[in-house]
Design a protein that fits this description.
The chain has four helices and 30 strands. The chain has helices at residues 3-19, 98-110, 126-136, 139-160; strands spanning 29-30, 35-36, 52-56, 68-77, 80-87, 167-171, 176-181, 200-207, 210-216, 225-228, 233-237, 252-261, 264-271, 282-285, 291-295, 312-321, 324-331, 345-348, 354-356, 370-379, 382-389, 404-407, 412-416, 434-442, 448-454, 469-472, 477-481, 497-505, 513-519, 532-535.
Length: 537
Amino acid sequence: MKNSTLRKNLVLTIIFFIVMSAVPNISGTIGSDSLNFEKNDKNAHQESFSEWKQLIGNESAGFGRSTTMAIRGVEIFKDELYIGTQSLNKSKLLGSPGLDRIMNDGYLLYGGLSEHLPFIFEKKLLLPILISRRFEYNNHNFLMFWLSMSLNLAMHMRARMSDGCEVWKYNSSLDTWSQLIGDHPEADMPVGFGDTKTLAASVIKKYKGKLYVGTWTSPLKGCEIWRYDGSNWEQVVGENALIKGGFNDSKNMAAWCMEEFNDYLYVGTMNWDYTDSGSCQIWRTQDGIHWSKVVDRGFRDLLPESEQNVHNTYAWSAKVFQDHLYIGTFNTNSVFRFKNAGFQLWRTSNGEDWEKVECPGGDGFGEKENYGVRCMAVYNDELYVATATDGYQLNGPNVQGCEIYKYDGANWTEVIGEGRINPDEKDGFGSKWNKYVWSMIVSSDNKLWVGTLNMQINVIGEDTKGCEIWCYNGTEWMSIVKDDVGEIDSGFGYIYNEGARGMMEYPAGSGNIVVGTFKLMKPFEDSEGCEIWTRYG
């Protein structure tokens, strides 16, 4: 690989992950301090439609905070809807603590000097650190170390640009939102669970009568797991728990998927360590306190030696199907155009013995651009596997959109793929710009709902769009949120609603579909917070 190509891909990666990683009436109160957010009808994209109603938006966008760019974890617990958020404050990139502190943190990450206090560091130390590491490794391993250092420093910068995640709950009977984690007086804990660098409540899952929340934070700290009984919060992975942050490995900076299987709660991590010891891990617990690791090094130990250069950085999605737990990965080899690219799909019947599921065409359904399994759902007794495709390729012959395949336990069938919607375009529900299936659920009336990340807005000169939502009844696909043909235009009528980031039927069994958005950061304008919409069944 040429150095220039590597540098280009690295810069794109850092920029992408700093930016990405951007019912009733909203006039109800939010929390006990009775904040009232009035509807601003002068914004055309935020009007109500026949089937759709905006729950969070206008003055209340981002729950009243412009740096709350997206929702993340979503779950129903004790008949209330819980939503975790993600924060990005771009003004912090060059603000306090500034470059010096970021450099100091870089030394803590990769200087081997973590026993010293940050204030003794000087920027001139970085060069000898890199030179010394160069002689420790061969060319390939040094490249992996350099990538790890750069990517983890970018992730740490991303955490420093956060105002901290929040957790909210919505009660449909009372028509109220209440803040549980945040800066409102009634909140149980401060924003970010007490640390503004905790940028996202990335995944939420109920298990054995309690609500578990996994976080995304800095690689200097590692992810945390908190649990909630309806009254009190308890840290079960982190500084004050038996298992420390990141499951005793700070490079596990995020808990990215959770699933209950055979009486255990499983958690998959995000780990951007490109050295031999890095990549995602999977941990499990039966009591929330004691945890054991069941997968290490992104499944590499289970692969033939010729395939062990794979980098399953994320355990991105999890689903139980036919007495097996399935885990879909994000293989970041695709980002850097390395060999052995494309997502992988793994399963286990007991949590200890894992096997790789062979997909049609191989990893990534035979296309390296399919770098991740972003969502899975069980629909009509088949496992639907939906992809995230290469968001770094926005032009050229290999540009494609997301895909969906279904699996009956033995055979695969293409559901959304090349030529199935529009013979002139590949994948993506007929649009190459629908890069991710970012949310996918099955509703109580037996319909499959899919929300996309549409990246067309990122391309200068192209007609801009927003996210789309599609619905499948087992026979045909219906466009629900889409320009010209949907119930409401793409992005809910606003192009900066780039992604349908989370989705849930709430109340359970009601047929109401609640969707929370990812709001694209405007580089040269004031930020706007995410929106939440509901479609009444």
